[in-house]
Every structure is written in structure tokens, then in C-alpha cells.
């Protein structure tokens, strides 16, 4: 869903070009937390997850966009590091976050 269309003109009276800004994947659950503490591990994982979902949908259309693939791998590594940190420090918060974001499937051992 497209929310806004912006029109920018080049300096000097050149041609105008348009770009569209898409709605982000913001969840209702985390909108209150965004205002409270944007530096928390949960919020960082949440924002990385939104960026990952956007890049994944972009790469479904543009399979040969290698710079976006590289950026996606970097974000995945950062999110993985934060999740491993959270699982070591506070297992309860980790499990709540995983279930809220629906990131990983539960392992039955």
C-alpha cells in the first residue's frame, strides 16, 4: 500500500522525478515501546526484523540486487547477535520476543 508520493525537482529547472514511500511493517505491539526505549534490545530486534521483511520482499522482485543481498546478510547477522545476547541474559524476554515477532519455529526435542 502506497502512502505518499513525493515529487522532487532538480536544481536549475531540470526534469522532475517521483518516488513512492511505502508503509512500513510496524506492529501495533511495539508502537508504545518505540516511544519508551528505542535503545532496548527488543526494539532493535524489532526494527531489524522490519528491515529484513522489507528487504526480503524487495529481493523477491529484484533477484540480482547484490548490494541489497549484502545488506540483508549484515542485518541478519546483527539481529542474530542481539538475539543470542538476549537469550544468554534473559531467557524469558527472549522467548516472549520470539513468539511476538514470529521469527523462529519452536524446536521439539
Q: Indicate the radius of gyration in whole angstroms.
A: 18 Å
Low-confidence stretches: 1-10, 15-29
Instruction: Classify the fold: give the CATH topology of one domain.
Output: Helix Hairpins
Q: Total strand count, please?
A: 2
CATH architecture designation of one domain? Orthogonal Bundle
Mean pLDDT equals 77
Biggest sheet: strand arrangement: 1-2
What is the name of the CATH class of one domain? Mainly Alpha
Report the principal-axis shape. Answer: elongated
CATH superfamily of one domain: S15/NS1, RNA-binding
Note the run of SSEs as H and E.
EEHHHH
Helix content: 55-70%
How many strands, what sense, and barrel or not for the largest sheet? 2 strands, antiparallel
What is the first-to-last residue Cα distance?
Answer: 41 Å
- How many H/I helical runs? 4
- DSSP strand content: 5-15%
Kindly name the structural category.
alpha+beta
Family: Belongs to the universal ribosomal protein uS15 family.
Subcellular location: Plastid, Chloroplast
GO biological process, one term: translation
Keywords: Chloroplast, Plastid, Ribonucleoprotein, Ribosomal protein
Amino acid at each position: 500500500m502506497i502512502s505518499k508520493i513525493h515529487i522532487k525537482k532538480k536544481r536549475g529547472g531540470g526534469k522532475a522525478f517521483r518516488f513512492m514511500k511505502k508503509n512500513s511493517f510496524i506492529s501495533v505491539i511495539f508502537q508504545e515501546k518505540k516511544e519508551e526505549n528505542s535503545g532496548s534490545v527488543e526494539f532493535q530486534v524489532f526494527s531489524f526484523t522490519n528491515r529484513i521483511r522489507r528487504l526480503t520482499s524487495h529481493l523477491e522482485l529484484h533477484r540480482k540486487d547484490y548490494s541489497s543481498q549484502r545488506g540483508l546478510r549484515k542485518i541478519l547477522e546483527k539481529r542474530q547477535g542481539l538475539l543470542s545476547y538476549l537469550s544468554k541474559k534473559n531467557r524469558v524476554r527472549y522467548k516472549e520476543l520470539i513468539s511476538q515477532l514470529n521469527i523462529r519455529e519452536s524446536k521439539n526435542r
